[in-house]
């Protein structure tokens, strides 16, 4: 990683690539980077006020892994509150951070992510827009060109399709077509994914639509811990970042550290180390996978579960190390089958790790249908734990 | 007379062209001069500014010079395109120079300008140089966007010129975003978001205008109405071609876009208005001699008589030439010499640009992401070229 040395934040990556992976790590490595306001120390040291690469025990999905290394006990909150905390912290640190979206201000946000922010920061920093996604996303890009750091909220990710031109052509391309003159440090975020009978137009998964846009970075959060960390990292990033949240995950509760921390945008998260098969997943499907993992463990399997988190670019380092160990891959995603994240990931794994595979890569995705309203049909649209169990059994034959 | 003519034929004795020596009869005086615009302004929801524009002889000479330079650059680009040195899309601005020059005269470099793809001359007006313009058009490394943008993507960040956009109308929300940032940072400057009569029918314009009016942003939407959206005349595209009125609740002003002094007056008025009161719409009644782009002959949807008619009656450069001559601020021969020297300037710039090399292959992967991305990326074939993003 050529550029790693230049930034302490990315020293985490350097640590990862320098250390050889042992055959069966007993402890899951969660590499979260803690940042204190001014300190930039080397990796590997612990304690407050220093950059740390931390190892945390995360053997089981229902354990509050995030607080494992926390010195002061941490505090419990819901995922949407974690996002809000991140926003408040960043808006306090940097006066150029502002929030643009529908009903984010006085109403408090349709999923309460921005609740109270308008009272704290005023109408110029928390902007209620009319229903005009194309133009307010464009305005966000224009403001970013001129030095602000807007956080644009799509009330539902699906609505951002109206702003696709702005996201693709302006947001993604301006840094390139201007020969590097302008940077677009914008964050585009919002809930997406299949909810509870919200209907086809409100249950879209746009990861696949945005993934080809050059110049864009994409991350998906899945726990309160990584939601806060990724939001902060996305705001601080100089690149445009699309942060995918999920409608059904907003009320997840977890204990997160009191100290300030950031998650690396390009890094995958080891959820459960294992030996037999690498299961790659993200967002809500992580929970279906962990549920299936319980069944699999009872049946004698030892799956390694990785939440890829970074949808563009893929963390091929973490993923590759896992494949080199288990030699079998299952991708579980909520994206559509055609042209989805899984399709790209499969491609990338074949290109890079073909020699390590003992079985064809299996990919479980949502069906290529508009999400139906009826609950039974909706359940059949997304991947269910039973299918995951069956797939692992098939791969591990 | 003969002696004067003799003097004019010794170019070596003259100082470098950018400064006109006082001994010459071309006026560089900065004495105030008041000139009436060609037609009065028509307004919507606001009192129009006066028809009397204050200027100086020196400024008029600068207008002539700048517009002639732009005209020459565009005509040279035409030849380069036909010689296949410029490829793809090339949208030329000749005929519309007064808008670029008049606007620049009314504002400062702290104000922002954003436009669509007919951007070569705005780039020049904002301080861009000929060599980087031609290099960019020919896809060379020395281009203003390192050869990676092309004709439709000229930018100049240090002069607050935000481009250079290919998708019709998409630059207007960007422009309102720039205005938002100006208000946010309390800069007391304004943004001029230029678009054409074709783009005036885009929904995102009205969305952005609504938001700008609600938030009282210093946004000035300038419709460069050259009466044709590619091949479609304005009366076939817009139910209401009174573009200055289409802001509805937003005030508007209609300006003769071929009269550089009217443009200057209107832009000054608009800037003062926008900084104090919020958005305003300007409609510049202008005309392009070339077709929509180099792929369009420009004569299938309009008559050659119309084009030559406008050239004779309303050409912006000729208007200023007439002003200079009738008021004795310059002689015809001096202006001709200036044009000759501009021609040479442009030819020299083209020669220099032609020498510039094509971008290196590694440039393919630079500027996709901003520095600090920190992750390796793979080349398109995923096997060979591994470019570490810078």
Automatic annotation (TrEMBL), chain A:
Listed GO molecular functions? metal ion binding; pyruvate dehydrogenase (acetyl-transferring) activity
Q: Which reaction does it catalyse?
A: N(6)-[(R)-lipoyl]-L-lysyl-[protein] + pyruvate + H(+) = N(6)-[(R)-S(8)-acetyldihydrolipoyl]-L-lysyl-[protein] + CO2
Q: List keywords of the entry alphabetically.
A: Chloroplast, Metal-binding, Oxidoreductase, Plastid, Potassium, Pyruvate, Thiamine pyrophosphate, Transit peptide
Q: Name one GO cellular component term.
A: chloroplast
Q: In this protein, which residues make up the domain named Transketolase-like pyrimidine-binding?
A: 77-252
Q: Does the keyword Nuclease apply?
A: no
What's the EC number here?
1.2.4.1
Q: Which InterPro entries match?
A: THDP-binding, Transketo_C/PFOR_II, Transketolase-like_Pyr-bd, Transketolase_C
**Per its Swiss-Prot or TrEMBL entry, what cofactor is needed?**
thiamine diphosphate
SUPFAM superfamilies under this entry? Answer: Thiamin diphosphate-binding fold (THDP-binding), TK C-terminal domain-like
| SMART domains with a match to the protein in the record | Transket_pyr
Q: Cite the Gene3D superfamilies for this sequence.
A: 3.40.50.920, 3.40.50.970
The record, for NCBIfam families, names:
PRK09212.1
Identify the PANTHER family for this entry: PYRUVATE DEHYDROGENASE E1 COMPONENT BETA SUBUNIT (PTHR43257), PYRUVATE DEHYDROGENASE E1 COMPONENT SUBUNIT BETA (PTHR43257:SF2)
The subunit structure is: Tetramer of 2 alpha and 2 beta subunits.
What does this chain do? The pyruvate dehydrogenase complex catalyzes the overall conversion of pyruvate to acetyl-CoA and CO(2). It contains multiple copies of three enzymatic components: pyruvate dehydrogenase (E1), dihydrolipoamide acetyltransferase (E2) and lipoamide dehydrogenase (E3).
Q: What is this protein called?
A: pyruvate dehydrogenase (acetyl-transferring)
Task: Please report the organism this UniProt entry assigns to the protein.
Answer: Miscanthus lutarioriparius
Lineage start: Eukaryota, Viridiplantae, Streptophyta, Embryophyta, Tracheophyta
Automatic annotation (TrEMBL), chain B:
- Name one molecular function that GO assigns to this entry: pyruvate dehydrogenase (acetyl-transferring) activity
Q: Which Gene3D superfamilies match?
A: 3.40.50.970
Q: Where is the composition biased (Basic and acidic residues)?
A: 302-312
Is this entry keyworded Metal-binding? no
Which reaction is this enzyme known to catalyze? N(6)-[(R)-lipoyl]-L-lysyl-[protein] + pyruvate + H(+) = N(6)-[(R)-S(8)-acetyldihydrolipoyl]-L-lysyl-[protein] + CO2
Tell me which Gene Ontology terms the entry assigns under biological process.
pyruvate decarboxylation to acetyl-CoA
InterPro entries, per the entry: DH_E1 (IPR001017), PDH_E1_Alpha_Subunit (IPR050642), Pyrv_DH_E1_asu_subgrp-y (IPR017597), THDP-binding (IPR029061)
Q: What class of enzyme is it?
A: oxidoreductase
Keywords assigned by UniProt, alphabetized? Oxidoreductase, Pyruvate, Thiamine pyrophosphate
Can you give the residue ranges of the Dehydrogenase E1 component domain? 66-360
Record's function text = The pyruvate dehydrogenase complex catalyzes the overall conversion of pyruvate to acetyl-CoA and CO(2). It contains multiple copies of three enzymatic components: pyruvate dehydrogenase (E1), dihydrolipoamide acetyltransferase (E2) and lipoamide dehydrogenase (E3).
Name recorded for this polypeptide? Pyruvate dehydrogenase E1 component subunit alpha
What is the scientific name of the source organism? Miscanthus lutarioriparius
